[in-house]
Automatic annotation (TrEMBL):
Protein name per the record: Protein BatD
Keyword Transmembrane: yes
Keyword Transmembrane attached: yes
Keyword list, A-Z: Membrane, Transmembrane, Transmembrane helix
Record field: transmembrane: 177-203
Entry-linked PANTHER family: BATD (PTHR40940:SF2), PROTEIN BATD-RELATED (PTHR40940)
One matching Pfam family: BatD
Length: 331
């Protein structure tokens, strides 16, 4: 047995700055923009890089307010993080893509990033530089933009402003008789009835398919878990520790989710234990399953783990899923 280890987890002190991103560690931030002199409807990419050591994966994306005349897209986030003896080290790259729709001179404000510094034990706020963007009018089209009232759509002049008189034969209908008894009149009554009937048929079909999906998930739970464990075995042979434990965890959580028909998002170790007892699984096997889960979760964040420990986890996962499959199938 390994010696008992006590971990003292302290809360972050009060006085969090506005826009605190949840970062804890030692970080710095840089930014760049790909172009400051462009034309309307050309894209601009502003890149911000947060680098350092700490909980980089848990840092939320800093918010940046762009001018109202810019069309803003969701930022793209790329994590380049590795686990070292000092913790998670690397960088988080955030790319903001925007498109200016009108000519003019605009300012993109500085990006603010706040985090808790472990060395000084205090909150720190970092800012990037502010950018001035000069936007010139792009090449025109056959449609001339004359005004903008909503910042979303332009009012355009049509290519023609005079309509010619229609010289074709025109069919006239007596007033008050054109709708009653017409095809549109009868369709007005028939279409709602047909829509209701189709809705009932589709609803019943969907309900039957949902029932079949639940049944198929339960049947294929062992097959899916075995496939994931086979991939985990390949990762074990290649010595890819972090990916190996991730795959074993996916196999264990996914198997229980499919077998018990409970979404993974609502699964906890407590309700797993209760549900397995209801299905007739004995306490000893439940304990082995939960111990395997705990060992995987601990090993993912441990600085190092030998191949023997990975072999033990792999063997335990195979054994516990095999035994549980036999018990639940019999019950």
């Amino acid at each position: 047995l390994s010696p008992k280890l006590t971990i003292d987890v302290k809360e972050l002190p009060f006085g969090k700055p506005a826009g605190f991103s949840g970062g804890v560690g030692d970080f710095n931030i840089t930014s760049s923009v790909n172009n400051t002199n462009i034309k309307t409807n050309d894209a601009i990419t502003l890149k911000a890089v947060i680098s350092g050591t700490g909980n980089l994966r848990l840092i939320s994306t800093p918010e940046l307010t762009f001018p109202s005349d810019f069309e803003v897209f969701d930022p793209k986030v790329d994590n380049n993080i590795r686990l070292t003896t000092n913790g998670h080290t690397g960088n988080k790259t955030i790319e903001y893509l925007v498109i200016p729709r009108h000519a003019g001179t605009y300012k993109i404000p500085a990006l603010t990033f706040s985090y808790f510094d472990l060395k000084s034990k205090a909150y720190k706020t970092l800012t990037t530089e502010e950018y001035t963007i000069n936007v010139e009018k792009g090449e025109g089209h056959s449609e001339q933009v004359i005004s903008n009232f909503t910042n979303k759509e332009d009012v355009k002049i049509l290519g023609e402003d005079i309509r010619f008189i229609n010289l074709n034969n025109v069919t006239l209908h007596p007033k008050g008789l054109f709708f009653f008894g017409s095809m549109a009149y009868w369709l007005f009554y028939l279409i709602p009835g047909l829509v209701f009937i189709i809705f009932c048929i589709v609803y019943r079909k969907q309900a039957a398919e949902n029932a079949n999906v639940i049944k198929m998930r339960t049947k294929k739970a062992n097959k899916v878990a075995t496939k994931r464990l086979k991939l985990a075995g390949t990762l074990l042979a290649e010595g890819k520790k972090e990916h190996f434990y991730d795959e074993v965890l996916k196999a264990l959580w996914g198997y229980i989710s499919d077998k018990l028909n409970i979404p993974v998002s609502t699964l906890t170790k407590d309700n797993i234990e209760d549900k397995l007892k209801e299905r007739g699984v004995d306490d000893a096997l439940i304990k082995v399953f939960l111990d395997t889960l705990n060992e995987c979760e601990f090993a993912r964040f441990a600085p190092a783990a030998d191949n023997q420990a990975m072999d033990n986890v792999y063997s335990s996962a195979l054994e516990v899923i095999g035994k549980m499959e036999n018990i639940i199938r019999i019950k």
